[in-house]
């Protein structure tokens, strides 16, 4: 049996999986009641089954080991007052299909993630879920319809149809209020609106330095804290911790009362920020969700549009003008972790003169020879490794002791259930939306087949040339090196949960081979540290991950002292 045949067998019958008897036909139907819409609706219809009553089923779906069941189908022009049925072959997670659900007692819930039409500047039209202030979270998105969970007794051998009704709607999200120190901004982007064919917006949470009103002559450096969609600036707390807060438990860190630890850390940052010795800067977190994800990755891309230029040419100048930023590259800095770590490195490289330093913590893959654990250029399959007679599933997430908790195939199976054509809002789909060329259908070209894991080498080549930061660093070093040397600082834990340390190893190897100029790039590791380690060797990761600003902003001051043009403002904001 050849390797391809072995793979086909594994995909058809996962190891250890029982093969249930085929169900005779559809067992579930969802009704869109009249009055919920005056127009037919399009979107992804999701059906969830749960044996756990601790929360709604829509809040129990994910990569965690105790995830509940979910199934999905696309619906187009669904008329109010009619039913849509889910057949036995409806794709599912973690079970492969609705047909595989065994008899039992379940809480059933349905949800419609609503799509709208976007008429791209390319002339193509795509159907996507617009962000509605929630950061592209399908189970929290305002306007999405869902049903009230209820218990059912399900028996696939009995031809009884279960009907649920989408009679609930997720309400709008309240906007955060301004405070003395935190301001909230939102602007319409001309660049993005032109690309997407409708008004598109960028937002920011701005933390003003202590003494901002008392020093009207001062102009300030700008620090961008990159990361996932922030509903408000975090971590930040202007009142003491809530002493009545019931302590929770963090399984990740094995800490009781981690919610209290987070509140205490946020309160401490506020006290430090407003104290006499903390550096005076403008600190911002950006809201730039796309129709594909909670975050654009702050770069220009074929499927998402010119988010990098929109941020740098529209949002940043607007904020610097309104809040007295210095407005020059020597006084702009960025940092972030995970998604924010990749963004910090990318914007420093793609806009080399617009930033004077990037602190890059636990970055998403910065070398696609280790796209987590996949070599996009040498491997033919993302889900399986091995030889002609043995195939091994590739891991997707591990705990601090190395125990595998999910595989890449399982993570992508969930995304396939949540949305076809890269519309899941999940991590693998967002990378694809950022790095891929635009497909002929207007959606991002798939890097691999979601069902089989077969990698498309042509798409991988496009990724290498446009977004493989390690490759770009090496390829363009002669011109890029003089502009970014001394500005990159990269940190990662050697037990990163998503194996992100592997790509950093490869980039460090590339750095050692660079010359003319000799690279001045900091790379640092922490043994046994998990995801989000930021270079702090003095604290456990559970605590250091709450202190990015305290870690990096003092280093911003050192960078300005070392690297600034002659005869520029380095004093007005030092009070």
DSSP strand content: 15-25%
Distance between the termini: 74 Å
Alpha carbon gyration radius: 25 Å
Spatial order of the strands forming the largest sheet: 13-14-18-15-21-22-27-28
Number of structural units classed as domains? 3
CATH architect. name of the largest domain: 3-Layer(aba) Sandwich
The largest sheet is:
8 strands, mixed
Count of DSSP strands: 28
> For the record, what CATH class of the largest domain applies?
Alpha Beta
- Low-pLDDT runs of 5+ residues are 1-20
Judged by helices, strands and strand pairing, the structural class is alpha+beta
**So what's the overall shape?**
globular
Structural summary, described in words:
This protein is an alpha+beta fold and 575 residues long. The chain has 3 domains: 143 residues; 280 residues, 3-Layer(aba) Sandwich (Rossmann fold); 92 residues, no CATH class. It contains 13 helices and 28 strands. The chain has an 8-stranded mixed sheet, sandwiched between helices. Strands 2, 3, 5, 6, 9, 10 and 12 form a 7-stranded antiparallel sheet that branches. Helix 9 crosses helix 10 and helix 9 packs parallel to helix 11. It is globular and about 80 Å long.
Detail the topology: elements first, then pairings.
Layout: H1 3-12, E1 28-31, E2 41-50, E3 69-78, E4 83-86, E5 91-93, E6 104-114, E7 116-119, E8 125-128, E9 145-146, E10 150-154, E11 162-165, E12 168-169, E13 182-188, H2 190-196, E14 201-207, E15 222-226, E16 249-250, E17 255-256, H3 258-273, E18 282-287, E19 300-301, E20 305-306, H4 307-322, E21 332-337, H5 339-350, E22 358-361, E23 384-386, E24 391-393, E25 395-398, E26 404-407, H6 408-418, H7 427-435, H8 457-467, H9 469-475, H10 477-484, E27 488-493, H11 501-512, E28 522-526, H12 541-544, H13 548-562
Parallel strand pairs: 1-11, 15-18, 15-21, 21-22, 22-27, 27-28
Antiparallel strand pairs: 1-4, 2-3, 2-6, 3-5, 6-9, 6-10, 7-8, 9-12, 13-14, 14-18, 16-17, 19-20, 23-24, 25-26
């Amino acid at each position: 049996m050849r390797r391809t045949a072995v793979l086909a067998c594994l995909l058809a019958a996962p190891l250890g999986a029982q093969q249930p008897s085929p169900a005779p036909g559809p067992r579930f139907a969802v009704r869109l009641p009249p009055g919920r819409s005056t127009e037919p609706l399009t979107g992804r219809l999701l059906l969830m089954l749960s044996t756990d009553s601790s929360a709604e089923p829509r809040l129990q779906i994910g990569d965690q080991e105790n995830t509940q069941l979910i199934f999905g189908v696309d619906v187009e022009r669904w008329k109010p007052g009619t039913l849509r049925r889910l057949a036995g072959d409806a794709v599912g997670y973690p079970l492969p299909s609705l047909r595989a659900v065994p008899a039992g007692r379940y809480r059933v819930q349905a949800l419609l993630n609503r799509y709208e039409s976007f008429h791209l500047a390319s002339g193509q039209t795509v159907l996507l879920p617009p962000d509605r202030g929630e950061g592209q979270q399908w189970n929290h998105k305002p306007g999405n319809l869902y049903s009230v969970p209820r218990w059912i007794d399900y028996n696939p051998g009995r031809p009884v149809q279960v009907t649920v009704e989408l009679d609930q709607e997720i309400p709008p999200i309240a906007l955060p209020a301004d405070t003395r120190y935190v301001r909230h901004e939102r602007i319409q982007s001309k660049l993005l609106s032109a690309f997407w064919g409708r008004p598109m917006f960028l937002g920011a949470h701005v933390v003003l330095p202590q003494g901002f009103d008392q020093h009207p002559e001062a102009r300030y450096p700008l620090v961008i804290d990159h990361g996932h969609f922030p509903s408000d600036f975090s971590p930040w707390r202007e009142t003491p911790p809530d002493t009545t807060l019931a302590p929770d438990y963090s399984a990740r860190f094995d800490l009781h009362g981690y919610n209290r630890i987070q509140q205490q850390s946020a309160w401490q940052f506020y006290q430090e920020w407003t104290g006499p010795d903390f550096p005076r800067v403008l600190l911002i977190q950006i809201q730039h969700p796309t129709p594909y994800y909670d975050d654009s990755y702050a770069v220009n891309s074929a499927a998402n549009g010119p988010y990098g230029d929109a941020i740098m040419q529209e949002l940043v100048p607007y904020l610097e003008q309104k809040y007295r930023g210095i407005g020059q590259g020597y006084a702009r800095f960025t940092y972030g972790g995970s998604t924010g770590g990749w963004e910090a490195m990318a914007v420093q490289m793609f806009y080399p003169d617009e930033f004077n330093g990037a602190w890059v913590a636990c970055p998403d893959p910065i070398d696609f020879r280790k796209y987590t654990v996949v070599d996009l250029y040498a491997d033919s399959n993302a889900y399986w490794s091995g030889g002609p007679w043995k195939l091994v599933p590739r891991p997707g997430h591990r705990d601090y002791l190395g125990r595998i908790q999910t595989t890449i195939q399982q993570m992508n199976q969930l995304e396939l259930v949540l949305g076809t054509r890269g519309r899941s809002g999940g991590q693998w789909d967002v990378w694809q939306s950022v790095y891929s060329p635009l497909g002929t259908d207007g959606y991002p070209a798939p890097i691999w087949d979601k069902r089989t894991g077969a990698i498309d080498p042509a798409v991988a080549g496009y990724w290498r040339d446009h977004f493989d930061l390690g490759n770009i660093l090496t390829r363009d070093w002669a011109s890029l090196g003089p502009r970014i040397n001394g500005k990159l600082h990269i940190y990662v834990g050697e037990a990163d949960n998503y194996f992100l340390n592997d790509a950093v190893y490869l980039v460090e190897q590339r750095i050692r081979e660079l010359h003319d100029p000799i690279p001045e790039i900091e790379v640092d590791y922490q043994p046994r540290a998990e995801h989000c380690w930021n270079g702090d060797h003095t604290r456990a990761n559970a605590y250091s991950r709450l202190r990015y600003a305290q870690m990096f902003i003092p280093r911003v001051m050192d960078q300005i002292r070392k690297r600034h043009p002659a005869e520029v403002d380095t004093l007005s904001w030092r009070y």
